[in-house]
Design a protein that fits this description.
Blueprint lengths: L1 H18 L1 H41 L2 E7 L12 E16 L2 E10 L1 H7 L6 E4 L7 E5 H7 L6 E5 L7 E9 L4 H6 E5 L9 E8 L5 H11 L6 E3 H4 L1 H39 L1 H9 L4 H37 L1 E2 L1 H4 L10 E2 L5 H18 L1 H8 L3 H7 L1
Parallel strand pairs: 3-8, 5-7
Antiparallel strand pairs: 1-9, 1-10, 2-3, 2-6, 2-9, 4-7, 6-7, 11-12
Helix pairs in contact: 1-10, 2-8, 2-10, 2-12, 8-12, 8-13, 9-14, 10-12, 10-13
Length: 389
C-alpha cells in the first residue's frame, strides 16, 4: 500500500515537472553544471595532491625511508609486491674544500645505476652530468657557487679530524629548488665514500596506488622495529598538512557553491508554486493533507536533483577521464614550488571523494531548499489558497 501511494506521488511530481519543463530545464542545468564542474575541480585537487607527493618522493627521498639498517639486510630483502625499487645509501657528514674555501655537507654514497632508475634527481642536472663510477661527486648549485667549483674540477672531501680525506672530481651540478638538497647534500658512488659505516639507509619507491603503511607493516613483521621505517607522511608533515588543507578547502568550496544553488532552487520553486497555486489549492480541497503536499514538493525537487546529478556525474567523470589521459600542464605556475620540482603536469583523478561529494551535497541542499516552497502550500488552508489564486 505504501509503495503504491509512493508511486502515485512520484508520478504526480513527474507530471508537475514535465508541465513546467522550462523551469525544470533551467534548474536542472544549474544543478548539472555545478555538479560536473565541482567533480572536475575535486578531481583536479586530488591530482594536485598526487603530483605533490609524486614530485616529492620521486626526486630523492622515496615513499618509505629505512634508517640504521645493518649490513646483513640487503636491498633485495626490502623488495616485495608493490615495491618498485630500493636505493642503498651511506651518509657521511663532513666538509668539501676547494681553492681555500670550505662548505659543510653530508656526502651520500649511492649506487648510480639504482638512482638513475628510481629517482629523478639526475634530471635536475644544470652542468656536467650525473654520477659515474669512480671518485666523482654530484654537487648542489648553492654549494658549488660557494666553493667556486664547476663540472670537471677537483675537490677534497674530509669526513672530520684524523679521518682520511679523498679527492673527488665534480661530475655535475644540480639544482632542485629544495633548500636542504641544494645547500647541504652531495652525492658520490658508494665505492668512493671514505668512511665505511656498518649501517645504511634505504629509500623505498612504491608502485602507484600502494599505501606506504601497508609496506611498513610487512617490514615490521619481517625485521626488527628498531630499524625505523618511516613513510613520507611522517618525514614530510608539511606536505601532509598541505594535502589535508586542499581537501578542506575544496569541501568548503563545494558547500558554498551548493548553498548558493539551493537558494536559487528555493526561489525558483517558490515562483513555480505561486504560478500553479490554484492546482495545489484544488488538491488540498480534494483532501490532500499538508504532509502529502509537503512530500509532493520534496519528491519534485528530489527527482529533478537526481536526474541532474546523474548527468552531472557522467559529464564530470568524462571530462576528468579525458584530462587524466593528456594531463594539464601547470609548469608556468609551479616552476618555483619545491613540491613540483620534477614536473608541473597534473593528472586529475576520480576518487570516492571527488566523484561522490558534489552530488551528495547537491542532493542534501536540494532537499533543504524544498522546505521553503513546501511551507508556502502546506501551512495554508485550501480556501485561502484558492482565494489568492
Amino acid at each position: 500500500m505504501i509503495l503504491k501511494e509512493l508511486g502515485f506521488w512520484i508520478k504526480t511530481a513527474s507530471l508537475f515537472l514535465i508541465r513546467s519543463r522550462r523551469s525544470t530545464f533551467v534548474l536542472s542545468i544549474m544543478i548539472l553544471s555545478s555538479v560536473a564542474v565541482l567533480i572536475f575541480l575535486s578531481s583536479m585537487a586530488v591530482g594536485i595532491n598526487d603530483a605533490m607527493v609524486r614530485n616529492s618522493v620521486s626526486l630523492y627521498s622515496g615513499h618509505i625511508s629505512g634508517f640504521s639498517l645493518p649490513e646483513g639486510v640487503k636491498p633485495e630483502d626490502l623488495k616485495s609486491e608493490g615495491v618498485k625499487g630500493v636505493s642503498r645509501r651511506l651518509h657521511v657528514p663532513g666538509v668539501i674544500l676547494h681553492k681555500g674555501k670550505m662548505e659543510p655537507v653530508t656526502l651520500v654514497g649511492v649506487e648510480p645505476k639504482d638512482e638513475l632508475q628510481n629517482t629523478a634527481l639526475w634530471k635536475k642536472t644544470v652542468k656536467g652530468e650525473y654520477l659515474k663510477q669512480g671518485n666523482s661527486v654530484f654537487l648542489g648549485e648553492a654549494v658549488a657557487e660557494e666553493l667556486g667549483a664547476t663540472a670537471g674540477d677537483k675537490v677534497i672531501f674530509s669526513p672530520g679530524f684524523n679521518q682520511k680525506t679523498i679527492e673527488l672530481t665534480v661530475s655535475g651540478i644540480y639544482k632542485t629548488g629544495v633548500n636542504y638538497l641544494d645547500r647541504s647534500v652531495a652525492f658520490s658512488p658508494n665505492e668512493a665514500v671514505p668512511v665505511k659505516s656498518s649501517e645504511w639507509q634505504a629509500a623505498v619507491f612504491l608502485d602507484d596506488g600502494i599505501r606506504p603503511d601497508s609496506i611498513i607493516k610487512v617490514y615490521n613483521e619481517k625485521f626488527s622495529k628498531d630499524y625505523g621505517f618511516k613513510s613520507w607522511g611522517e618525514l614530510m608533515p608539511d606536505l601532509k598538512q598541505l594535502i589535508d588543507l586542499n581537501y578542506v578547502s575544496m569541501t568548503i568550496v563545494i558547500v558554498l557553491v551548493f548553498g548558493v544553488v539551493s537558494l536559487g532552487i528555493a526561489g525558483a520553486f517558490s515562483i513555480f508554486i505561486f504560478k500553479h497555486l490554484k492546482e495545489y489549492g484544488i488538491m488540498k480541497a480534494m483532501g490532500v493533507t499538508s504532509g502529502e503536499m509537503t512530500a509532493l514538493i520534496i519528491i519534485e525537487v528530489a527527482i529533478m536533483n537526481l536526474i541532474a546529478c546523474f548527468l552531472g556525474i557522467v559529464i564530470g567523470a568524462l571530462a576528468t577521464y579525458i584530462a587524466s589521459g593528456i594531463g594539464i600542464d601547470l609548469t608556468e605556475f609551479t616552476s618555483h614550488n619545491q613540491y613540483f620540482s620534477v614536473s608541473g603536469i597534473i593528472y586529475p583523478r576520480l576518487t570516492f571523494y571527488s566523484l561522490c561529494l558534489p552530488p551528495l551535497v547537491s542532493f542534501i541542499f536540494g532537499l533543504l531548499a524544498s522546505i521553503w516552497p513546501a511551507a508556502i502550500v502546506s501551512h495554508r488552508k485550501a480556501a485561502d489558497i484558492l482565494r489568492i489564486a
